[in-house]
Amino acid sequence: MKPKIWSTLIIIIIIIYLLTPLVATATYSMFQKWTDIVPEGFTLKHYGDLLSNQAFMRSLGRTILVCIIPILITVTITLLALFVVTVYFPKLEKYVQILCMIPYTIQGVILSVSILSLYSGSRSFLGIRQVMLFGAYCIIILPYIYQGIRNSMHSINMPMLIEAAEMLGSSKLEAFIRIIVPNIISGITVSSLLAVGIIFGDYVIIRNITGSSFQNVQIFLFLAMKRSSTEASAVFVIIMLTTFLITALVLYVQSRDNRQKTESKGR
Amino acid sequence: MSYIVFENVNKYFGTNHVLQDINLEVEKGQLVTLLGPSGCGKSTLLRCLAGLELVSSGKVYLDGKDITDDSARNRGIGMVFQQYSLFPNLSVFQNVAYGLKQKKMPKAQIEKKVKQILALVGLEEKINQYPSQLSGGQQQRVALARAIVTEPKVLLLDEPLSAIDALLRRNLQIEIRRIQKELNITTIFVTHDQDEAMVLSDMIHLFNEGFIEQSGTVTELYARPRTKFAATFIGNYTILPAADFSRACGETLTCQDVAIRPEIVRLSYTPNLDQDRFHLQGVITNSIFHGNIIRYNILCGDISINADVVYESGMPYINGETVFLAIKKEEIIEL
Amino acid sequence: MKKKTNIKLYFLALLPFLIVVFLYEILPLLMMILSSFRSEVDKSILFTLDNYITAFTRLAYQRAIINSLKVTGISAFFGIVIGFIGAQAFHNSTGKIKNVFLTILNMVSNFAGVPLAFAYMIILGNSGVIIQFAKTYGLTALANFDLYTSTGLNLMYIYFQIPLATLLLVPAFYGIRQEWKEANLLLNGNGFTFWTKVGIPVLLPSIFGTLSVLFANALAAYATAYALLMNNYSLLAINITGMFTGDMTTRPHLGAALSVVMMLLMLAAILINNFINRQTSKWRWR
């Protein structure tokens, strides 16, 4: 009994510690003044101002755009690559894995400056800032997408399912699209959502490559911080709500998946 | 020409020579088993027939046609895999209908055929369930239904029951045999389990390290193993160097090894003097109950022989007792 | 004949992946490494170690490396200790609180960078909420707290390491079998002997794995530090960025050398982790 009380206490302390900055900032965003224990003057004016601010809405739209396009690209190319490699060139799997894990060592700072210094002088489409940005995002999310897809491919015994479909008259590609993809779709969803979280939270890559000419919400927050802390606190809350929504979706898809797995195991 | 013919088939994986000059024929309507320990090449041969592997050299004929270079999807062969080969995202109905849809069969006809075949494997009521909701045995029945619904020229079964527990396995073996006879479908069954091979087969081909060690009917293989490997793998033969056996029984044998099936050894307290038997004397060292029979281990000088005795009434022999052994000469297999 | 063309077709499917990886991963990385050996002053020199010598001898860059290692080390240490305690508490507790804890950890694990710095400014900045309380109620020690220092930086780094460390250690605790604890009790051991003799050794590979992730995470962090201290504090990530995009003249080759140093530090963390994994794989199963 005793260790359980201690454990609960520790968990509660850690939760309070983790939530304090969040709750405090969220509270701050909804009041006019907070100098004593109780804040004064409840208001939603900061949010109203923000949502009618064209620049903010544009940055929000841009953020969504730079999330969707790189994820679509990376998921597609990784799926194709992993399909071809597992089915036809299993010996290459090792190398694909290395290529996919390298970005994890480079991380945002180095990746962004190396892409910037390589292509910023180029006159071709490679020199377009947005293209560079998409390229960088594709690479930075690669380890997560790769692992998500690979793990779910391993959990279903892909070679056997493809062979079974072939024996029933399908081609390998048809089997992949009709059988494999539907079975790993929740793995793809989870890793895509994780990737959304990463791109949504990115500051350094977009700052280095496109600067403030192509702002996402993080840059908007950074600039708002310098202008007014009340405006920034409303931006903060919107960013955090979006992040939490993404995490909640991830947890939901994962728990649904686990439930299905334990169900089939129990039989 | 037989229905299925393998002609000088060789297969290499890198430098590993897994099939060595295999020549094998299967008659139409037969159930043939490829039996052997794991890694002996039996599954590889099956996969070469399926088209999932290509032979390194040699020819494969099916129904008089050379199919050596055809792709798996065009061979018209049905296959059941070890386990978990059902498509998890499709229901039982969709799984079974998959091959028929590939053949562009009209919808109404598909539905009729699927229901028919599910009735045959006894799973009509599971038609709308998903593979994860079925037991391992049920999954394999669906896999069987999926393989035979397209009326393939040959049905291949690659250790389909290896992951299923013993009792259920026996039921499924009998059921597979029933369905095979009912549809009169040419079937090749791969297994490492000699009992399973005996229950099912018209013919058994015993594999060892890329060769066919011996082919024959069930009784031929059981009663007349031709090599030491065949004798070790099938039955419970005691295998002894002939010289040791000669010394123990006092008669000279010219072969290299002898193989003795435990059920041909007679035990008694008094010597039996029939001329057509070998006679030995030994001490019981161990006895194990196997249901209705008792297996004794008897030490005769420096050799040890197993004897199976049907347990009737009365006291069995006790460890340490001296007994006389009599073994019919014609039943001993010289290797 | 037919087979050959097929192989080519399959290779075609691999092509998009290879193009993207080549253009935005391999080529930039390669050029970065080559560029680190070029001279910053004389464009005609293609190979020199000057940049590396500068990086390790010039006080400003030395400080950047040391500061980076310091904040990384401190935050990883506190992160792993608190994460361990948190994961152990998670392991020992039951019921709803487990789910609540796990959900909060997952949510907060994305909370870093600019928003984190901003939230800390709101609560602990010069006119932050907690500082105001402290001033009102005369808690001078707290009231004089200055967030805009290395202490403040450490505090924020520790904050973002904790949820990550806990989340990474929670699965490891599933490897501690109840039977081992029972065997320990039957052999006259207590909680302390169990954890020192069995528990921590069994968890060691996970602990080092987590440390390596925390190390990489802190070393590469940029936005948190930049949002708080701008260019006023010397850190590898900030210095590198400054050399490519700074307001003053850029120094790309020196920046490239510093980038290579940073990558080597990351690589070292991963290699040490792999080495320890190999050492312990003797008695680990799976």
Descriptors:
heterotrimer; A: 267 residues; MetI-like fold; two-stranded antiparallel sheet; 2% strand; C: 286 residues; mainly alpha; 13 helices
Description:
The complex is a heterotrimer of chains A (267), B (335) and C (286). By secondary structure, chain A is mainly alpha-helical. Chain A has a domain at 68-209: MetI-like (MetI-like fold), CATH 1.10.3720.10. Chain A is 81% helix and 2% strand. Chain A contains 11 helices and 2 strands; from the N terminus they run αββαααααααααα. Chain A has helices at 2-29, 45-51, 54-87, 93-119, 129-140, 142-154, 158-167, 172-200, 204-210, 217-227, 229-266; strands spanning 31-33, 40-42. A two-stranded antiparallel sheet of chain A has the order 1-2. In chain A, helix 8 packs antiparallel against helix 11. Chain A starts with a helix and ends with a helix. Chain B has 335 residues and is of the alpha+beta class. Chain B has 2 domains: 4-233, Rossmann fold, CATH 3.40.50; 238-334, OB fold (Dihydrolipoamide Acetyltransferase, E2P) (Beta Barrel), CATH 2.40.50.100. Chain B has 9 helices and 18 strands. Chain B is elongated. The two termini of chain B are 33 Å apart. The mean pLDDT of chain B is 90. In chain C, 42% of the residues are buried. Chain C has helices at residues 2-35, 50-57, 59-92, 96-108, 113-124, 129-136, 140-143, 150-173, 178-186, 191-220, 223-229, 236-245, 252-280. Chain C has a single domain, classed as MetI-like fold (Orthogonal Bundle). Chain C starts with a helix and ends in a 6-residue tail after the last helix. In chain C, helix 8 (150-173) crosses helix 10 (191-220). The radius of gyration of chain C is 24 Å and the shape is globular. Helices cover 78% and strands 0% of the residues of chain C. Chains in contact: A-B, A-C. Chains A and C meet through helix 1, helix 3, helix 4, helix 5 and helix 9 of A and helix 1, helix 3, helix 4, helix 5 and helix 6 of C.
Question: Biggest interface between protein chains, with counts per chain?
Answer: A-C, 85 and 83 residues
* H/E element sequence of chain B: EEEHEEEHHHEHEHEEHHEHEEEEEEE
Biggest sheet details of chain B: 6 strands, mixed
> Overall mean pLDDT score of chain A?
89
- SS content category of chain A: mainly alpha
Silhouette of chain B = elongated
Low-pLDDT runs of chain B:
none
How many helices of chain A in DSSP terms?
A: 11
Gyration radius over CA of chain A: 23 Å
CATH level-4 homologous superfamily of the largest domain in chain B: P-loop containing nucleotide triphosphate hydrolases
Q: Stretches of chain A where pLDDT falls below 50 for ≥5 residues?
A: none
| DSSP helix fraction of chain A | over 70%
- Indicate the multimeric state: heterotrimer
Bin the helical content of chain B.
25-40%
Proportion of residues in β-strands of chain B: 25-35%
CATH topology of the domain at 68-209 in chain A: MetI-like fold
Rg of Cα set of chain B: 24 Å
CATH 4th-level superfamily of the domain at 68-209 in chain A: MetI-like
Strand order of the largest sheet of chain B: 6-7-8-3-9-10
